[in-house]
Design brief:
CATH architecture: Sandwich
Low-confidence stretches: none
Number of domains: 1
Number of helices: 7
CATH class: Mainly Beta
Bound molecules: N-oxalylglycine, nickel (II) ion
Length: about 350
Amino acid sequence: MGEVDPAFIQDPQHRPKLCATEAEEIPVIDLSPVTNHAVSDPSSIEGLVKEIGSACKEWGFFQVINHGVPLILRQNIEKASRMFFAQSLEEKRKVCRDERNAMGYYDTEHTKNVRDWKEVFDSVAQDPSVVPLTPDEHDDRLTYWTNASPQYPPHLRDTIKEYVEQTEKLSFMLMELIALSLGLEAKRFEEFFVKDQTSIIRLNYYPTCPSPHLALGVGPHKDVGALTVLAQDGVAGLEVKRKADGEWIRIKLIPNSFIINLGDIVQVWSNDAYESPEHRVVVNSEKERFSYPFFLFPAQETEVKPLEELVSDQNPSKYRPYKWGKFLIHRFSTNFKKREGENIQILHYRIK
Ligand code: OGA
Ligand code: NI
């Protein structure tokens, strides 16, 4: 991408201030009580659960260290991703997604409704993944999302697969800790993911931007799934909106850490005990940036609603149930249309 095309220029209220606050750090949580087999002291896990609970309550965002994912897998995905995105647009567009199969490559030239200064390569964790054919609630037809097979680099698919296996494992472990922190059984969330989960691994590429004060890599948004496990390479840019005052806080780089954020589904399951945080990505004029989020998504037929254990007469359900698959497909299909701001939101299901 060259000069900033007007299509990418953010509305004035969304333009980034390029000196985001770094004074207050989001929590950094050491997972060794659950990843280091030598540690078997239940009280150390109790402490960890408490930490997770307060991080979820206060921020919905935290970083984890000693997470058990081998560094080499991450280095491999970083290398492969750089090789893929370094190709010409023409080459990359050979594995473009389309309206029927949302997996593969896209750049925002294709989907001008979003002003994001980035390119993406999406893959499903479970290939193929069953999803609804249309967002229409009266249409029961299903289809599959399958992974694209770029010719270059030849090992891209295998590299992604190896990486996903580990990040998925990490995300399940985190869901157990989150369940415990809400006073639930550790395995409470398992049923939603064991069969036919629709999780996605995304390779994000943010090219350098000549006017970073006008554009954003990703505009302010909340993640729609249960949980996001993100690796960023050596260039910062991810920012989270602090709940207390709406200030944007830059996420500090910690080598080999993962950045975790809650998504809308956990917000609904917990009946707003935890909220999914708003975040965005700032670009810069000198260094391109790469990131690798794993979005943990349940099976398409999952009916998302507050968990029975977490609602009561005093704390009635705050959401009407919605079908995950329909929600997901709605989100992806609006990406193909110029309908910014009309994306489906959990807010539409909130009981007033
Ligand atoms: C996203 C996202 C952050 C990043 O893709 O939803 O928030 O650092 N990405 O790339
Ligand atoms: Ni996000």
